[in-house]
Amino acid sequence: YKALACFSLREIDFSKIESRPTSASLLSFLKFRSQALGKRSRTRHEIPRFRYCFYLDFLESELDERAQYALSHLREQADFCRILGSYPAKSRLVGPVKDAVDSLKNVQMKREDTLATTLPSDEEETQKLNIGIVGYGAFGQFLGKQMAATHKVRCIDQMDRSKEADRTDVEYYPMFDMHNFLEDLDVVVFAVPLIEFEDVIKNIAANQLSGKLVVEVCPLSAHPKKVLLNHLGGDADILSTHPMFGPSDRSGTIEDDAHLKYSWDGQPMVYDMVRVSDVRRADSFLPIFER
């Protein structure tokens, strides 16, 4: 009842509700996560004999603001919540994908040939990106530590974060050196508080972000996306994200908080490709959150 209320209160309708017994692997994951978070384990008598997962199809885009708030509310009620996909109504294949599917209809293949298939893109190496993080507080450090494992990362902050940057293998720039910081960057991540976001964006000339992928990681809100669309030119790509994870103590650092090592694993992330012209660059950036 509480789970359905998350959608009912926002006037979001369902087209399907289905239940299935919870798999052993998911139960093991929930137990592991509970232990990692230091929660008290329930006794055998407290655990229901049968546990079920519910699959919900609702009639709203995942990226719609109402749906995002409903899903955020649902995660407060449920032990586990995962988005399996968001599909446009009455959609159809177009372009090269449609041509490829149509050509497959006329191909005669033996059964053994269909057991293992690959795409040409599977053999391509992931593009190594130059990523800059604006705002290197606790959450910025958390992102920088993970991104630096596979990409070249630099950061900038109003405060002296040189020691934190050294600990996370990231290059630090002072705020007055914004021009050199932005030079040759592929991706610029804004990890600043929501209340400061608009001022930070307006203090950076739009042409300095031209040709870059601009990523915001603010909490669920349509405001950052509107700010970026209003301030940036059409040649800047925009990616709005909301990682459903982060430091348990936002006032600390990577070294202060051991939980930072574990809060990435198994956590969901909502993102909206607001405007992306360089798809390959975006595809190289997003897999950071799959690890």
Helix-strand blueprint:
Layout: H1 2-8, E1 14-21, H2 24-36, E2 52-58, H3 65-77, H4 95-104, E3 130-134, H5 138-147, E4 152-157, H6 162-167, E5 171-174, H7 178-182, E6 187-190, H8 194-202, E7 213-216, H9 223-231, E8 237-243, E9 269-275, H10 279-285
Parallel strand pairs: 3-4, 3-6, 4-5, 6-7, 7-8
Antiparallel strand pairs: 1-2, 8-9
Helix pairs in contact: 1-3, 8-9
Low-confidence stretches: 249-262
What is the molecular shape?
A: globular
Biggest sheet: strands side by side, in what order?
A: 5-4-3-6-7-8-9
Strand count, sense and barrel status of the largest sheet are: 7 strands, mixed
The CA-CA distance between the termini, in Å, is 34 Å
Q: Which structural class do you get from the secondary structure elements?
A: alpha/beta
Q: What assembly state would you assign to the polypeptide chains in this entry?
A: single chain
> In total, how many beta strands?
9
**SSE string, helix = H, strand = E?**
HEHEHHEHEHEHEHEHEEH
Strand-residue proportion: 15-25%
Number of helices: 10
Overview of this protein structure:
- With 291 residues, the chain is α/β, with parallel strands linked by helices.
- It has helices at 2-8, 24-36, 65-77, 95-104, 138-147, 162-167, 178-182, 194-202, 223-231, 279-285, and strands at residues 14-21, 52-58, 130-134, 152-157, 171-174, 187-190, 213-216, 237-243, 269-275.
- The strands form two sheets. Strands 5-4-3-6-7-8-9 form a seven-stranded mixed β-sheet, with helices on both faces. It has a two-stranded antiparallel ribbon with strand order 1-2.
- The model is unreliable at 249-262 (pLDDT under 50).
